[in-house]
Specification:
5-stranded antiparallel β-sheet, about 50% helix, alpha+beta
């Protein structure tokens, strides 16, 4: 684009011969370009003053767009470039390149019948070009920022899924977009000037959360959170909130910008998913529990059948042999009879041991601690090579029966696993009744093993007792942990919270 002005030509460069006049004209140009609102006005003012100072008849200014010819771009190398006679206007042409952002951003053209200007005029024109170039840079920067701000404003105002608004230093709302109106329910005219704590719950206000959020944004540059917020109609929504501090070029805080997204739907989906997962876990635990209860019922039935059937029959045989014994006189026959009675007693003892494993007789009347000690008396007789150390809190039947039985089965399975696989000679058993939980630990100094990530591998390796113990613990809402390394022994740990026990007691 270009602009022109015409002035009557006087004696060329006469006025610029005086340094005072040079300074006055340059000052006039600086004031003119500083007051100009745009590049066009800056060109017009500069051209008029230059023509007045030099006596040139004609002036024109052109902005150089990016990518224009090298002919104009190279002009930055000379303060003033002489161009040959222009046949269209019948005069000589002077071109003055104007540096803008370290490149030729504009070109001023003048015409005159006289020859090239003296050096002092060239130097003065170079200074004029510098001042004009600085002003054009400033005008272009302001225009760029204005357009960018307009674009950002249009973008922010058009976003409907995000609430974007700004706050002053006190937290009062200074701008409001359509997304904020949609999410929070307030029209722009009714919310401007209000404090942003209006969107917080009474509990959050009592906890001073609005002020703490601004303080965090001021100190850290931003503040992020997810929390409940309040709409105009009083309803709550789950919000993803980000607060940014806004500072000027010198780092002085000017206010805050706030971005809010409504995540209520996601929150509801997460809650439904969590409830579904919890329900699935409860149903799975209940199914496991029923299976375990069914298994225990079968064991109890088998124990009763063995006690009431085969054992009683064996006792009948023993009593019958006692009756026959008094009538036999042969020593060899008596020896055979005694051997038969011993064999029958051994069978009875073995069956009683099986009954004890199926349903420990001391567990119900005396509690978990007594049942473990009673079982260990027999264990030590049958496995004298294994030393067992005990650290047991007395439960005195304070634990619900299902939990006593679960802990006992864990103990029983772990001990059987040690005998079959561990090759250990020392076992430590701990039972601790704490305020919040009950914990059982069973450790050995055996050969250990690599604990697989998937429990199905334990089944394939024959560690069925550990798998069953885990199922029992988890069915009761507890946790089951196995720690082991080759050559370092094994630790089995079961923890069941007191809350589960309280629920068991109520049931």
């Amino acid at each position: 684009m270009s602009w022109s002005t015409e002035k009557p030509e006087t004696h060329p460069f006469q006025r610029l011969a005086d340094p005072v006049e040079q300074t006055r004209f340059l000052k006039d140009i600086v004031i003119a370009v500083l007051q100009a609102e745009d590049a066009e006005q800056a060109f017009l003012q500069t051209l008029e003053i230059i023509c007045e100072a030099t006596g040139w008849q004609y002036g024109r200014g052109s902005l150089v767009a990016q990518g224009e010819s090298q002919q104009e771009a190279h002009l930055v190398e000379w303060p003033v470039a002489w161009v040959e006679y222009d046949t269209q206007i019948g005069t000589n042409i002077y071109r003055l390149p104007v540096p803008v952002n370290s490149a030729t951003g504009a070109v001023l053209e003048f015409s005159s019948l006289h020859g090239e200007p003296p050096q002092y005029v060239v130097d003065w024109l170079a200074e004029v070009a510098q001042q004009l170039g600085k002003r054009i840079e400033r005008i272009q920067s302001i225009e760029y920022l204005r357009k960018r701000e307009e674009h950002l404003t249009q973008l922010v105002e058009s976003v409907k899924d995000y609430a974007f608004y700004t706050l002053d230093l006190d937290g009062r709302i200074t701008s409001w977009n359509i997304g904020a109106q949609k999410i929070k329910g307030y029209q722009e005219q009714e919310i401007l000037g209000k404090h942003f704590s209006l969107f917080y719950t009474p509990q959050a206000i009592a906890a001073n959360k609005p002020q703490k959020a601004l303080e965090a944004a001021r100190e850290e540059g931003r503040f992020d959170t997810e929390d409940w917020r309040v709409r105009k109609d009083g309803s709550l929504f789950w919000a993803d909130v980000v607060i940014f501090s806004m500072v000027d070029n010198s780092g002085v805080l000017k206010g805050y910008s706030k971005l809010t997204r409504d995540l209520t739907h996601r929150k509801m989906m997460e809650a439904e998913l969590a409830e579904s997962q919890a329900r699935h876990l409860r149903e799975t635990a209940e199914l496991r529990r029923r299976l375990i209860d069914g298994r225990e019922a079968e064991r109890l039935h088998m124990a009763q059948e063995l006690h009431d059937g085969p054992i009683q029959d064996l006792y009948g045989l023993i009593f019958g042999l006692d009756a026959v014994e008094s009538k036999i006189r042969s020593q060899s026959a008596l020896a055979i009879l005694a051997e038969m009675k011993r064999n029958l007693q051994q069978v009875v003892s073995a069956l009683r041991g099986m009954i004890g494993d199926l349903r420990p007789p001391t567990l119900a009347p005396f509690g978990l601690e007594k049942a473990i000690r009673s079982h260990l008396q027999i264990f030590r007789e049958t496995h004298p090579e294994i030393q067992v150390e005990l650290d047991l809190d007395a439960d005195r039947r304070t634990l619900p029966e299902d939990l006593r039985l679960a802990f006992y089965r864990v103990y029983q399975s772990s001990l059987a696993n040690i005998v079959r696989h561990a090759e250990a000679n020392l076992v430590n058993i701990k039972l601790k009744l704490e305020n919040e939980q009950v914990c059982m630990e069973i450790s050995d100094n055996g050969k250990g093993f690599i604990v697989p990530e998937r429990w199905i591998k334990l089944v394939r390796e024959g560690h069925l007792g550990l798998v069953g113990a885990r199922e029992r613990a988890e069915a009761l809402g507890g946790s089951f942990l196995v720690e082991s390394k080759p050559g370092e022994g094994t630790l089995v740990k079961v923890i069941i919270p007191r809350s589960v026990m309280d629920a068991e007691a109520e049931n």
